[in-house]
TrEMBL record:
Belongs to the AGR family. It comes from Thamnophis sirtalis. The keyword Signal applies. It comes from the Eukaryota. It is found in: Endoplasmic reticulum; Secreted. GO terms for molecular function: dystroglycan binding. Keywords: Endoplasmic reticulum, Membrane, Secreted, Signal, Transmembrane, Transmembrane helix. This is Anterior gradient protein 2 homolog isoform X1. InterPro entries: AGR/TXD, Thioredoxin-like_sf. The chain crosses the membrane at residues 35-51. One of its GO terms (cellular component) is extracellular region. The keyword Iron does not apply.
């Protein structure tokens, strides 16, 4: 019976302890053949000590053994138009960045409670080509009207998208497909919007 317990204890110690502790226990076991209970208590104490070593004083797991990963938080300025893109907060900031980076501005006027704005936002955010090309612009999406009336050439409706080049010229010539809302885009107009984005970049290269 003694050798049965020894075999069991040896297996446990080999799994949970280092070689030095393992050898020490074997020596103790050979000198304590008549006291199996004490041997069991010793094993439990050793295992309990090893378990505590993997935790810190406040009870959390050792960060070296359990690395925590933090998901990337979406940008609040994107408002859902592309969380991985860099957005400016104000029109003035967008103008400054456009001048210093020589990138055109893409301004999206929208409202959170507008179903047309929400529908266009969904398509814009999920369109891989648009998202990739958008990184070439200084981006601004706003839910209010600015003091610059040139940003509303044919009225203050939403959603509407206008482009401004680094010379602060409103690209009134880059329009959508609707004659009564020249700068409006519907979800099905994503290919046209993508084409107009390319046009804004091409005009920048040829005219500046």
């Amino acid at each position: 019976m003694f050798y049965y317990y020894c075999s069991f204890l040896v297996a446990l110690l080999f799994k949970y302890t280092q070689t030095s502790i393992f050898v020490l226990f074997c020596s103790l076991a050979l000198t304590m053949q008549k006291n199996i209970v004490n041997i069991l208590i010793l094993v439990l104490a050793v295992l309990n000590t090893l378990a505590k070593e993997t935790t810190t004083k406040d009870g959390r797991k050792d960060p070296k053994e359990h690395k925590e990963t933090h998901p990337k938080l979406p940008q609040t300025l994107s408002r859902g138009w592309g969380d991985q893109l860099i957005w400016t907060q104000t029109y003035e900031e967008a103008l400054f960045k456009s001048r210093t980076s020589n990138k055109p501005i893409m301004i999206i006027h929208h409202l959170e409670e507008c179903p047309h704005s929400q529908a266009l936002k969904k398509v814009f955010a999920e369109h891989k080509e648009i998202q990739k090309l958008a990184s070439s612009f200084v981006l601004l999406n706003i839910i209010y009207e600015t003091s610059d009336k040139h940003l509303a050439p044919d009225g203050q409706y939403v959603p509407r998208i206008v482009f401004v080049d680094p010379s602060l010229t409103i690209r009134a010539d880059i329009t959508g497909r609707y004659s009564n809302r020249l700068y409006a885009y519907e979800p099905q107009d994503a290919p046209l919007l993508y084409s107009n984005m390319q046009k804004a970049l091409n005009l920048l290269k040829t005219e500046l």
